[in-house]
């Protein structure tokens, strides 16, 4: 009898202790930790459902097949194609997303909205309007190793960055067949455009010389700063590398280096200040370099067989100047000419 009483007392004490322990840490006792996972989607299954249910940080692998969904990515995930995966559209509106290896077609195959640290890698895109488009302000965007083919030379852009873009890299892409290869339509800063191939940009709305290559390869608006345009090949365009003044003054701090531009109207057509154009090859165009602005250094370029002029410089103020150093000019309609009150330093 005494032993039963002792045992009952011990059990009561243990129950009280367990209860007290539960109350001492009530916030952690009900926490469920969900780890990132790898999810595989097969034909007939929904990619969007996989995205919605996957924990943040997960990788979703989509196996070969035709998928009709227009996807919306609103969390940090990696979306990867395994084999040939055909899609219509991917909309990205969250930080840190990665999209790799898909085949997309339509008006707006990839749209990126107000994000940072997004990567678009190794996709094949055929677009009627904008192949890859960003809207809003985007930071640390990486667009690499994609192939983009435009199907609408009236309005199409292989890539269109409609809002400000900062600290971003566009590299190793192949672009063709649209009116604009790359369109930077808002002042942007610290952009690297490296080792891209841009060809056959048309503008069929052009009435002066229709049905010829009259689109633009790489186009930025005034007010942009610190662009590095390096190691690109641009063929069969109107303005291959263009920095245009739309009422915002000159762009500044550009480095245009080691590019090859051939069979275009202008190799470089730019409104720039305090920028460097060096070690490029501008050949078999109408004009090699056509620059409006001051404080620019143009050096060590090969400029040959351009039908009208090798280098054209325009200044607006008497104290404006541009520096020419060690350029090779051969076979051009004229070596260079200047317009305006400024001077050339040679």
Automatic annotation (TrEMBL):
SUPFAM superfamilies reported for this sequence: Pectin lyase-like
InterPro entries: NosD_dom, PbH1, Pectin_lyas_fold, Pectin_lyase_fold/virulence
Transmembrane segments: none
SMART domains: PbH1
Domain Periplasmic copper-binding protein NosD beta helix residues, every copy: 217-332
Gene3D superfamilies (UniProt xref): Single-stranded right-handed beta-helix, Pectin lyase-like (2.160.20.10)
Organism superkingdom: Archaea
Name of the protein described by the UniProt record: Parallel beta-helix repeat
Species whose genome carries this gene: Methanobacterium lacus (strain AL-21)
């Amino acid at each position: 009898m005494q032993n039963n009483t002792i045992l009952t007392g011990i059990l009561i004490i243990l129950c009280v202790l367990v209860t007290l322990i539960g109350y001492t840490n009530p916030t952690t006792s009900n926490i469920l930790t969900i780890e990132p996972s790898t999810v595989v989607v097969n034909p007939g299954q929904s990619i969007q459902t996989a995205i919605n249910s996957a924990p943040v940080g997960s990788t979703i692998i989509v196996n070969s097949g035709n998928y009709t969904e227009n996807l919306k990515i609103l969390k940090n995930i990696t979306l990867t194609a395994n084999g040939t995966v055909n899609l219509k559209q991917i909309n990205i509106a969250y930080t840190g997303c990665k999209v790799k290896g898909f085949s997309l077609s339509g008006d707006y195959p990839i749209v990126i909205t107000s994000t940072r640290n997004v990567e678009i890698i190794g996709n094949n895109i055929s677009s009627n309007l904008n192949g890859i488009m960003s809207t809003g302000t985007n930071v640390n965007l990486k667009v690499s190793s994609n192939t983009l083919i435009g199907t609408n030379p009236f309005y199409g852009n292989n890539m269109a960055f409609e809002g400000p873009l900062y600290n971003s890299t566009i590299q190793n892409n192949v672009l063709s067949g649209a009116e604009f290869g790359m369109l930077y339509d808002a002042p942007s800063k610290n952009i690297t455009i490296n080792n891209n191939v841009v060809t056959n940009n048309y503008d069929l709305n052009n009435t002066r010389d229709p049905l010829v290559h009259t689109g633009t390869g790489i186009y930025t608006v005034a007010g942009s700063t610190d662009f590095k345009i390096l190691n690109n090949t641009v063929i069969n365009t109107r303005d291959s590398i263009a920095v245009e003044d739309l009422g915002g003054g000159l762009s500044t701090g550009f480095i245009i280096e080691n590019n090859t531009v051939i069979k275009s109207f202008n190799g470089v057509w730019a409104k720039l200040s305090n920028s460097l154009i060096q070690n490029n090859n501008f050949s078999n165009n109408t004009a090699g370099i056509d620059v409006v602005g001051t404080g620019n250094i143009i050096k060590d370029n090969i400029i040959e067989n351009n039908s009208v002029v090798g280098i054209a410089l325009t200044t607006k103020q008497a104290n404006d100047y541009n520096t020419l150093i060690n350029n090779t000019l051969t076979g051009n309609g004229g070596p260079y000419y200047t317009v305006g009150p400024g001077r050339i330093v040679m």
